[in-house]
């Protein structure tokens, strides 16, 4: 079992990572949140069938009433309608400020349930219980949100969890597509912060179907460790936390344009990372073996080109609404070198030109 302490200006909390980590949840609740009157699990349809009973069985030890509310799978959960349904359920079940919400699922459920917790009665506690590799990024750091048709995660808040319980057993049920989506965020962490991790990933991860428990533990622990250091310094994305959006400026535009849920987050971000790496070579002379990178990620099943059905002018407008952008230009996270990111505004003409080369 690995334990990482997240320390921010507003809160300190543990991240527990390992096989059977869910067994640590009841003791944590009993010792840290013993005033609770109810526990509400928010999960999605697929995760409910796989893991809800396991979590409920663990929570019996708390002696608290345990309720659950099931939402649609993936990005379809992050809508105003589903958010409203969750708030209505909380009110109907007399959830209050002495209640706890548990987000059981992937990044979408974590974002939704965290935003419900952040806004219900002006904020109640919640715990993240991730069930996907992708959620190693989203479960840590307190960014919670739902989507708007004009932008991903545009309606949200900063609301830190009480803890993150990461049970590696839950990853065994992930389909390849979801593993691929999550692994893209692991790659991102290595590129912005840790060249040794990047080289380790490139040498050791050659088939996403054959990742061992030890490899999962290594990549998740290192990835969360990287995010923890950044979040500790910049909790509310006023500075270096924006570096965590490497690949996300174009990636979010691709994901939204394809329709949330039709193209996974990680696959979209991977396209955005290739784009950002190409821009980095042009704008700041990044010394990086891009061909080797493309060969590696292609062998893992990633698409590295912009889907042909998407209009570049539309993608450009979406990129300029990205939360990092503070003026009319699109702001990108680029790399001086692996482990050394920077922010740069880039002219529309250059962005269109580079998109034309990624068909």
Topology, pairings included?
Blueprint: E1 2-7, E2 12-18, H1 25-32, E3 38-44, H2 45-59, E4 66-71, H3 80-92, E5 99-105, H4 107-119, E6 126-130, H5 135-138, E7 143-148, E8 151-158, E9 164-167, H6 176-193, H7 195-204, H8 213-233, H9 248-258, H10 265-284, H11 290-299, H12 312-319, E10 330-337, E11 340-346, H13 348-356
Parallel strand pairs: 2-9, 3-4, 3-5, 5-6
Antiparallel strand pairs: 1-2, 7-8, 10-11
Description:
It is a single chain. By secondary structure, the chain is α/β, with parallel strands linked by helices. The protein is 45% helix and 20% strand. The protein has 13 helices and 11 strands. The chain has helices at residues 25-32, 45-59, 80-92, 107-119, 135-138, 176-193, 195-204, 213-233, 248-258, 265-284, 290-299, 312-319, 348-356, and strands at residues 2-7, 12-18, 38-44, 66-71, 99-105, 126-130, 143-148, 151-158, 164-167, 330-337, 340-346. α6 runs antiparallel to α7. The longest helix has 21 residues, at 213-233.
Termini, distance in Å? 44 Å
Mean pLDDT: 94
Number of strands: 11
Low-confidence stretches: none
Computed Rg = 20 Å
Shape, per Cα inertia axes: globular
How do the helices and strands follow one another from N- to C-terminus?
EEHEHEHEHEHEEEHHHHHHHEEH
Helix percentage: 40-55%
Give the biggest beta sheet: 4 strands, parallel
Portion of residues in beta strands equals 15-25%
Number of helices: 13
Structural class of the helix and strand makeup? alpha/beta
Lateral arrangement of strands in the main beta sheet? 4-3-5-6
């Amino acid at each position: 079992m690995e334990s990482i302490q997240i320390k921010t200006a507003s809160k300190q909390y543990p991240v527990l990572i390992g096989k059977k980590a869910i067994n640590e949840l009841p003791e944590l609740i009993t010792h840290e949140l013993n005033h609770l009157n109810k526990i509400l699990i928010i999960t999605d349809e697929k995760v409910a069938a796989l893991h809800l009973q396991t979590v409920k069985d663990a929570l019996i030890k708390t002696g608290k009433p345990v309720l659950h509310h099931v939402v649609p799978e993936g990005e379809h959960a992050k809508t105003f309608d589903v958010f409203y349904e969750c708030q209505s359920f909380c009110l109907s079940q007399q959830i209050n400020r002495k209640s706890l919400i548990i987000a059981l699922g992937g990044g979408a459920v974590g974002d939704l349930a965290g935003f419900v917790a952040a806004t219900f009665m002006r904020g109640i506690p919640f715990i993240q219980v991730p069930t996907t590799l992708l959620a190693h990024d989203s479960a840590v750091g307190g960014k919670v949100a739902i989507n708007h048709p004009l932008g991903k995660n545009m309606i949200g808040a900063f609301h830190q969890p009480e803890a993150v319980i990461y049970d590696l057993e839950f990853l065994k049920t992930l389909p390849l597509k979801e593993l691929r989506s999550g692994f893209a965020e692991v790659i991102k962490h290595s590129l912005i912060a840790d060249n040794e991790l990047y080289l380790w990933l490139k040498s050791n991860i050659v088939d996403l179907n054959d990742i061992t428990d030890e490899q999962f533990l290594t990549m998740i622990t290192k990835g969360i460790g990287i995010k923890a250091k950044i979040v500790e310094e910049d909790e509310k994305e006023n500075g270096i936390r924006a570096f965590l959006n490497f690949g996300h400026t174009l990636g979010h535009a691709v994901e939204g344009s394809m329709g949330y849920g039709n193209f996974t987050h990680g696959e979209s971000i991977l396209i955005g990372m290739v784009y950002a790496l190409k821009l980095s070579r042009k704008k700041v002379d990044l010394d990086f073996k891009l061909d080797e990178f493309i060969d590696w990620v292609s062998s893992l099943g990633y698409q590295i080109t912009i889907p042909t059905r998407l209009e570049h002018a539309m993608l450009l407008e979406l990129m300029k609404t990205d939360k990092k952008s503070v003026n009319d230009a699109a702001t990108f996270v680029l790399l001086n070198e692996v482990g050394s990111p920077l922010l740069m505004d880039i002219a529309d003409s250059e962005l269109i030109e580079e998109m034309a080369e990624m068909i």
